[in-house]
């Protein structure tokens, strides 16, 4: 069982930055590929970014590429999402998710592949 706790959300003006953190319980964090997803009001959940268990592989949604950076610190059992040049359309609840895998270099883009989810953190970008 893995518990995920997100933090770092808040209200920011367009063009600003936020860094989200997701702290995971357990001692085998490196065996989990991690992902960030978001859900805006009235919209379906969408993929934002993913990182492999080793941290060597990452993948981004086109809408956030070059603005967001996903990273992880396996020693701290934490995954991060650095969000720069935020836009009003980035407003959503952001969720981190974990997928246990033997493949340390693989990333996963489909939310249905993830086994564990955090409770989410609200990000609001004002124009």
Question: What is the 3D shape?
Answer: globular
The level of helicity is: under 10%
Mean pLDDT: 96
Radius of gyration: 13 Å
Number of helices: 0
Strand and helix order: EEEEEEEEEEE
In whole angstroms, the N-to-C terminal distance is 40 Å
Biggest sheet layout:
7 strands, mixed
Percent strand: over 45%
Low-confidence stretches: none
List keywords for this structure.
mainly beta, 127 residues, four-stranded antiparallel sheet
Short overview:
The protein is mostly beta strands and 127 residues long. Helix content is 0%, strand content 48%.
Question: Can you describe what's shown?
Answer:
The chain is an all-beta fold. The protein is about 0% helix and about 50% strand. Strands 2, 4, 5, 6, 9, 10 and 11 form a seven-stranded mixed sheet that branches. A hairpin with a 4-residue loop joins strand 7 and strand 8 (about 80-85). It is globular. The mean pLDDT is about 95.
SSE arrangement:
Layout: E1 4-7, E2 10-13, E3 18-24, E4 32-39, E5 46-51, E6 58-60, E7 68-73, E8 78-83, E9 92-100, E10 116-117, E11 121-126
Parallel strand pairs: 2-11
Antiparallel strand pairs: 1-3, 3-8, 4-5, 4-9, 5-6, 7-8, 9-10, 9-11
